[in-house]
């Protein structure tokens, strides 16, 4: 009997169903549960109140990232809420026997950076975390998604979660990327094209020659921002690039186990005739360096374009949102962003704080200096990346350029720690969200790629990175 063709998502989903009843959510087994200090305290309290232990501690990993300071990490945390949350995570992990990579630990870092870095993230897995950008891990051919605090408790208690099956979507990008175009530009282009709701209810698989030629770091950037188009998650089929990245990492299989895992991983791809609920085809040559101008990631444009006007909006709701965004950002429709003065540059976040990002930034800024009055934060995604930056001498390039080197953490991606952008100030950021107040109350954010941000850091104004590439 001929088997029904299945997508990559369907293959992994079907393999992880513990129990399924018609018209009800599936009980889905979770291979890896990642936790941090912000969304876990209430979940642990729930377990304590019910007298329940963590069901499988060896499948749970904890780190400190959202609230932590990025300077003086060896000293007591000054901000009260941050100090309490960090202390509570330490207490809960000690009490329940969970591996914790806290401040000062060599494995500490942003939760979505350390999973792949340590080899915890592997093809064919289901991975959850109380953070929406868990979709990052989908770059390895996994079903990975963010969950709420009550669901964190659910997974801690049972290593399973109740989930309705999402629809499937394939975004195929074929062709060769142009000069200065990165994976960040790809995902910003897609979101600008289909809106923040274009992927709602779907799990997105990215495919095509442009995707296949990307590094793992670049693939993670794309999957990271899947959530910004409303998708439940994003994924890319594993291949030789994936396998080479994983091999030899601390939690990667070894010896015969490696060969066994590899044989399975090579089966993880969508069948030729698999049917998706939705498909989108993009010509890679249409993509140019991108930047956002508004207050959500879909308000994006090619860096050489002008900001749209109200007349470009399709309906009154869009016009209303556009007016609000322009007022908040202090910008005007029909004007260019090129040459716009910025006050801050943030080079970090779970979207773009890997070693590849800093190597690309260093190529742009080497031998150059930032303008007076501009503040540039360099915040690596993990303690391992901090060490690698130092080993390669990239820190000297950044310091000589006048940039501030920081320790690992979420930092100025979100206004939840000390690294906030002051009210009314403009920041070009390699992070994933530009909502009102995201980087601090009144902060104004432009999202862009690491190299576009690097070019801007040297000029102090929004710049086209292609002018810096020989």
How would you describe the overall organization of this protein?
The protein is an alpha/beta fold and 470 residues long. It has two domains: 8-265, Aconitase, domain 3 (2-Layer Sandwich); 306-468, 2-Layer Sandwich (Aconitase, domain 3). Helices cover 31% and strands 16% of the residues. It is built from 15 helices and 19 strands. It has helices spanning 8-15, 41-50, 80-96, 111-118, 149-158, 183-194, 209-212, 216-224, 240-246, 255-265, 316-329, 355-365, 383-391, 394-400, 450-459, and strands at 17-19, 26-29, 32-35, 60-63, 99-101, 126-129, 143-146, 160-163, 167-174, 202-207, 233-235, 278-283, 290-292, 300-302, 344-347, 375-378, 404-405, 426-429, 444-447. The chain has a five-stranded parallel sheet. Strands 17-16-15-18-19 form a five-stranded parallel sheet, covered by helices on one side. A four-stranded parallel sheet has the order 11-10-9-12. Helix 2 packs across helix 5 and helix 12 runs parallel beside helix 15 (450-459). The longest helix has 17 residues, at 80-96. The chain is globular. It starts with 7 loop residues before the first helix and ends in an 11-residue tail after the last helix. The model has no long low-confidence stretch (mean pLDDT 97).
């Amino acid at each position: 009997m001929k088997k029904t063709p299945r997508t990559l998502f369907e293959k992994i989903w079907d393999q992880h169903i513990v129990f399924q009843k018609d018209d009800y959510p599936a009980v889905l087994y979770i291979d890896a549960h990642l936790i941090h200090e912000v969304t876990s305290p209430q979940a642990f309290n729930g377990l304590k109140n019910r007298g329940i232990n963590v069901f499988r501690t060896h499948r749970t990993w904890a780190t400190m990232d959202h609230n932590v300071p990025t300077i003086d990490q060896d000293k007591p945390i000054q901000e009260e809420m941050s100090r309490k949350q960090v202390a509570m995570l330490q207490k809960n992990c000690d009490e329940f026997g969970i591996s914790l990579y806290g401040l000062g630990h060599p494995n500490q870092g942003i939760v979505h950076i350390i999973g792949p870095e340590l080899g915890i993230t592997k093809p064919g897995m289901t991975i959850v975390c109380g953070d929406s950008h868990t979709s990052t891990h989908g770059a390895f051919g996994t079903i990975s998604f963010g969950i709420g605090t009550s669901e964190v408790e659910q997974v801690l208690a049972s290593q399973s979660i109740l989930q309705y099956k999402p629809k499937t979507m394939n975004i195929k990008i074929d062709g060769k990327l142009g000069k200065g175009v990165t994976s960040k530009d790809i995902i910003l282009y897609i979101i600008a094209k289909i809106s923040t709701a274009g992927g709602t209810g779907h799990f997105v698989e990215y495919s095509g020659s442009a995707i296949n030629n990307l590094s793992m770091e670049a693939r993670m950037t794309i999957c990271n921002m899947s959530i910004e188009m409303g998708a439940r998650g994003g994924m890319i089929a594993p291949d030789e690039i994936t396998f080479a990245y994983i091999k030899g990492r601390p939690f990667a299989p070894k010896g015969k186990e490696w060969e066994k895992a590899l044989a399975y991983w090579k089966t993880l791809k969508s069948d030729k005739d698999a049917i998706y609920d939705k498909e989108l085809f993009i010509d890679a040559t249409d993509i140019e360096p991108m930047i956002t101008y508004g207050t959500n990631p879909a308000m994006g444009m090619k860096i050489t374009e002008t900001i749209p006007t109200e007349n470009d909006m399709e309906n009154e709701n869009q016009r209303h949102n556009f007016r609000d965004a322009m007022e908040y950002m202090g910008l005007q429709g029909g004007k260019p962003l090129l040459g716009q003065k910025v006050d801050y540059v943030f080079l970090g976040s779970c979207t773009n704080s890997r070693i590849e990002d800093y190597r690309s930034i260093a190529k742009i800024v080497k031998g150059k200096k930032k303008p007076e009055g501009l503040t540039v934060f360099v915040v690596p995604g993990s303690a391992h990346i901090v060490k690698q930056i130092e080993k390669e001498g990239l820190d000297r390039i950044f310091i000589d350029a006048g940039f501030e080197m920081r320790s690992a953490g979420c930092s100025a991606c979100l206004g939840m720690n000390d690294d906030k952008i002051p009210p009314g100030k403009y920041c070009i950021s390699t992070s994933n969200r530009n909502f009102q107040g995201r980087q601090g109350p009144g902060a104004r954010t432009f999202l862009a790629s690491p190299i576009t941000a690097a070019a801007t850091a040297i000029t102090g104004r929004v710049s086209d990175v292609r002018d810096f590439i020989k």
